[in-house]
Amino acid sequence: MLDESAAKFLDGPVPGQSLTTEPKSRPWEQPPKYATADEALGFYIPRLSDLELSAPMVDIIEEGTTVSAVADLIQSSGVMNGLHTLDVGIIIAPVLVELLVTQAEIAGIEYKIGTEPTDTLDPAMVRKAVDSSSEDFFDTSEEMEDTDVMEEEAPMVPSDGLMSRREV
Description:
The chain is mostly helical. It is built from 7 helices and no strands. The protein starts with a helix and ends in a 24-residue tail after the last helix.
């Protein structure tokens, strides 16, 4: 009988599984929706200013998660959803921290920015933060209706490498 930690390990992805999807089929493999920091902040500022959308983030901060960890979660989720690139996310992270600090002060809760010395990060808190992040926060369906993206098909270059894709 497997213990709980071994069972969780075995439920994870198979090594190399990310290499089995079609190229450019993931959001982060596409050109970003917001190419500059100003455009990305134009997406985040209204959402973090809305009390209803930012309430789950404030709740997580109130439970002890640092503001910088929540900001990193938000910007890395934006990268994963194809909203912006990683470098734009790193550039806007300090602004996200300030917005979250402002929301925490408005809510009247104590918060830690994350620059204070700490012992360790509680994995349960991180898991809870990821699980409670709202899908509504990253919903861009209203904005996406206006644009239709036509993708040009790149010519296939045959490869003879060990991990090359087979032609069908």
